[in-house]
Amino acid sequence: MRRDGTVGRLLSRAFAVLVALIVGSGLAELAAVLVQHRAVEQLTDEVQPLQLANADLRAVLTDAQRGLRGYLLTGDEQMLDGYFTARTGLTAAGDELRRRTDGRDAAAAADQIARADGWFANAEQQRLEPPRSDEAIRYAELGKTLFQAFVTSNDQFRVTLTRRAADLRDRVERLQTIAVVAVVALTVAAAGAAVVTALRTSRRITRPLGAVVETLDLVRDGKLDARADVTSGPAEIRAVAAAVNATAEQSEHIRRHEEQVSARLQALDTVKTDFMSTVSHELRTPLTSISGYLELMRDSEPGELTDAQHRMLEVISRNTRRLRDLIEDILTLSKIESGSYSSDRIPLDLAKTISKALVAIGPVAAKGSVGLHLDVRGPLPVRGDGAQLDRVLDNVLTNAIKFTPAEGTITVHAERHGDKAVLVVADTGMGIPADEQQALFVRFFRATNAIKQAVPGTGLGLAIVRSIIDNHSGTITVDSTENVGTTVTITLPADEP
């Protein structure tokens, strides 16, 4: 089969013709636009201003005639105000008309200005005569003739300019038609060249490339014995065909590996699902029974149990609570991973929620000889899930107490900053190593210093807290220094009171 050169060479030859036609079309349109621009410029910069100047001169003479006639008919000298204003404007109107005319229009403009000057000279004589006198009537008859002569000259010049403007507009329209025809013709030629180029490209490039794509589809569908033709088409397509064949030879091995990995992942997912089900049903049920019987034993008559037995029951109760909390954390984490964990947000006062949590955690802090410093500035209206926010506060405060040694202090500060409700919990505990802080919100993560000191925990609390805060459109940050302390900052969108 025929071997062509490179794709670049084929495309450069094919598109050279298209570029030439496009450039030709652009040059033709540019030439037409330039000629149109010259005609439009002549119309807007020469003819139309000349028409306006011609009309202004006529308006000046008309205003002067109206004022003078009113004076002569009524004898009211105030009627001459318009006449004097028009006589003052005659010079400006005449100068503007002369400035706008060129050689071919100079005679017509000079004729109008001369006739206007003649009318004004007669009008001045008429104005000086007593109204309705014989001399005034004679000057009025002469002025009528002079004014009519001016109007005739003005109309002739106006007609000339109107025809010239119409000729320019016709020229612009003809040029537009010619430009459209030229562009259409060149566009048709470009389209024809594009069709020819497409056919040649299809024969020399598209068909071999399509065969390679078809081979790729076969390999993707599992027909690993499919091979592309490495002898046809440009050099680049032949190279792609060779690469496709090499890929097909490795596909079977890759597919086997993917099947093994997929099977292992499915097995792991099944194990995880089974484990969560076991935690939910097999652990919670007996744990509920244990808690129930513990309550019954502790609520018995005081004389029935010794002090040692009461202490043993307290240990059992404490570890039962730890186990129940662990189960709840695992179940919550499972809901988060499955995307079914949501928050039912209603209006509530975060300050009251914090106060309730502090009341519950106070005895634990006192038992560990940890001081609590409180600065809660309410109310702090937010929209949130009360149970989930209780869980956040319980986790953060419990961690602060758990990791703070005796005689340490915990400071709880809460207030509103603009449109945010801000809670800050700072302790003087063991802190977190700097290189481990980026993993604080990863599930099952525990700091090395906590592990070494055998501080109990599962590493699930902060991961759950982060998810709850995210569901509330808030943020949580942790700033910690080892052997100095840790500060947890939580912000939530504030609600209107």
TrEMBL record:
Bilayer-spanning residue ranges: 178-199
EC identifiers of the protein: 2.7.13.3
Record carries keyword Protease: no
Gene3D superfamilies linked to this entry: 1.10.287.130, 6.10.340.10, Histidine kinase-like ATPase, C-terminal domain
Enzyme class: transferase
Key words, A-Z: Kinase, Membrane, Phosphoprotein, Transferase, Transmembrane, Transmembrane helix, Two-component regulatory system
Reaction catalyzed: ATP + protein L-histidine = ADP + protein N-phospho-L-histidine
Primary location: membrane
Top-level taxon: Bacteria
Subcellular locations according to the entry: Cell membrane
Sequence ranges assigned to domain HAMP in this UniProt record: 203-256
Keyword DNA damage: no
Pfam families: CHASE3 (PF05227), HAMP (PF00672), HATPase_c (PF02518), HisKA (PF00512)
Domain Histidine kinase: 278-496
SMART domains xrefs: HAMP, HATPase_c, HisKA
SUPFAM superfamilies with a match to the protein in the record: ATPase domain of HSP90 chaperone/DNA topoisomerase II/histidine kinase, HAMP domain-like, Homodimeric domain of signal transducing histidine kinase
PROSITE patterns: HAMP, HIS_KIN
Protein known as: histidine kinase
Species of the source: Paractinoplanes bogorensis
